[in-house]
Structures are given as structure tokens and as C-alpha cells.
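Our preliminary data section would be incomplete without showing what the modeling component actually yields. Below, a chain of 190 amino acids is followed by its predicted structure, encoded as C-alpha cells that our downstream tools consume directly.
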Amino acid sequence: MRSDETDPVDARLGARLAELRAEHDWSLGELADRCGVSRSTLSRAERAEISPTASLLNRLCAVYGRTMSQLLSEVEAGPETVVRSAAQSVWQDRASGFVRRSVSPPHAALRGELVEARLAPGADLAYDRPPVAGLEQHIWILEGALEVTAQDTEHRLDTGDCLRMRVWGPTRFRCAGPGGVRYLLAVVRP
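Predicted structure:
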């Protein structure tokens, strides 16, 4: 894709973000105050001039009461009961080295979802809040090592390890090995 072309997923995501803001009858300034992101960045994301980072989407999901998978599924085609590997939605935060594949067929009314995540060597993702308070997460390491910090407790996870946690505050995911890490994230909304 040429640099002057807009990614179709970013375009649909930007349009959905603009719709959500309009549904809440918020100005860019009001949304900026609620999520702690500049009006300029929000405007550029809504117009698909930038590809939103995982941190930005997390802040917006928190304001709108959605998980990231819910938001991303809203910009995909209609609900399916089976989604083939080749059709699974992949989103990446190029700035942080985070790649996220929505494994579960999207369905806004269901509470659980599976996500395959990859972090590049040295990647470090910090979220200042969960998208939904009390979100349950199961993190199963498929390859590599991951450090997860939640509620001021750090967990080092290696291949085969699984962590279950409820998310109430800030979290951090850091690739802990010399190579990348690949993990399965099971998310259950409260």
C-alpha cells in the first residue's frame, strides 16, 4: 500500500469513532476531556489521517464502554458463527510492534472473545485503564516470554504459562525475551 493511500480498516474505524462521538452528542473537546487525548489526534483518527495506536483505542474504548474487539468488530462485516483463519481481522499498532488478530467470530452481544496477540522484541504496551472495568482476561503464552503488570503486581510468563486476572486499573504488557512473544488472550466482559 502506498503511503498516500488510506488503509480501509483505518477508514472504517475512523468513521465508526466519529459515529460514536455523534451518538453521545460530544464535541471533539468534550471527548478529549473525557479520554485525555488531544482534539487534534482524535480528529485525525476520525478522518483516518493516522492509524490509531493500541493506547488510543484503549482510551476511547474506556470512554465508550467497549472492548477493543467489540469496537473493531463494529467496523467489520456482519456477524458470523465461523470465521476462517484467512478472514480473521488483523490490526496492528506499528508504533509499538503490537499485532492483534481477532480469532473469535465477531458478535457484539456475546461476552467472551479470543484474540491472538504478538509483540515484537522490546515492545512495551501500557494502558492507563481497562476498556471495561472488571474485565476478565486469560493470557496463555504460545511462544516467547511476556511480563504483565496489573494492580502493581508483575507476572513473568513463559511458553505454556497462563495468567487469569480481572482488570480494574492500569496494565502493562512487555515482551520479555530476545525474540517476540505470541499469546492467546481470552477476554470476558463482566
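Strands lie at 90-93, 98-102, 112-119, 124-127, 135-143, 145-150, 153-158, 162-167, 171-175, 181-188. The radius of gyration is 16 Å. Preliminary results of this kind motivate Aim 1 of the renewal.
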